[in-house]
């Protein structure tokens, strides 16, 4: 899957060479949320390249001499117990700071939703943390509804 995006960007499924930069972005995303990531490069490779229930999509700037991705989206494929159907869950979308506000986040979300549909999902849920910079703007720009914050539950 290769999808053209605004600002000379291409989005596609991740390849092994993309993973070091995606791992750096995971660390930055965790820090933005005030935490640390527990995902090691090896775990990321298993999730992104070997797992049947995950799709890691990356965005590359085609007008840049740098070949590393500038953003990513993680889509998890699973069964929605409420809807009773296969469903996509876009768990993470991240674009590096110098490349924000160029349509890359919108392109990643669109590609993630398309990948969920390609996997046979009847729909997709895009989740975000309220403290994530700019996420609500991306969702609104794509015509997505913003749900009220869901209560958080814990099991002991």
Can you describe this structure?
- It is a single chain.
- With 156 residues, the protein is of the alpha+beta class.
- It has one domain (2-141): 3-Layer(aba) Sandwich (Aminopeptidase), CATH 3.40.630.30.
- Helix content is 29%, strand content 26%.
- Strands 1-2-3-4-5-6 form a 6-stranded mixed beta sheet, sandwiched between helices.
- Helix 3 (104-118) links the parallel strand 5 and strand 6 (124-126).
- The protein is globular, with a radius of gyration of 15 Å.
- The N and C termini lie far apart (41 Å).
- The model is unreliable at 151-156 (pLDDT under 50).
In DSSP terms (H or I, runs of 4 or more residues), the helix count works out at: 4
* First-to-last CA distance: 41 Å
Task: Give the C-alpha Rg.
Answer: 15 Å
Q: Characterize the largest beta sheet: strand count, sense, and whether it forms a barrel.
A: 6 strands, mixed
Query: What gross morphology would you assign?
Result: globular
Question: Which secondary-structure class do the elements indicate?
Answer: alpha+beta
Unreliable stretches covering 5 or more consecutive residues: 151-156
CATH class group: Alpha Beta
How would you state the average pLDDT, rounded?
A: 82
Total beta strands: 6
- The CATH superfamily is known as Gcn5-related N-acetyltransferase (GNAT)
Per CATH, which architecture?
A: 3-Layer(aba) Sandwich
Strand arrangement within the widest β-sheet reads 1-2-3-4-5-6
**Residue share in β-strands:** 25-35%
Tell me the CATH topology.
Answer: Aminopeptidase
Domains, number: 1
Q: Percent helix among the residues?
A: 25-40%
**Order of secondary-structure elements:** EEHHEEEHEH
């Amino acid at each position: 899957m290769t999808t053209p995006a605004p600002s000379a960007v291409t989005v596609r499924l991740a390849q092994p060479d993309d993973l070091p930069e995606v791992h750096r972005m995971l660390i930055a995303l965790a820090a933005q949320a005030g935490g640390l990531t527990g995902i090691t490069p090896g775990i990321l490779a298993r999730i992104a390249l070997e797992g049947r229930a995950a799709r890691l999509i990356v965005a590359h700037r085609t007008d840049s001499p740098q070949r590393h991705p500038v953003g990513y989206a993680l889509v998890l494929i699973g069964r929605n117990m409420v809807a009773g159907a296969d469903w996509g869950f876009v768990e993470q979308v991240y674009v590096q700071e110098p490349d924000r506000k160029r349509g890359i986040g919108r392109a990643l979300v669109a590609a993630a939703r398309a990948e969920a549909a390609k996997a046979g999902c009847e729909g997709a849920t895009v989740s975000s943390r309220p403290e994530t910079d700019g996420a609500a703007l991306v969702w609104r720009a794509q015509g997505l509804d913003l749900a009220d914050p869901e209560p958080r539950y814990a099991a002991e």
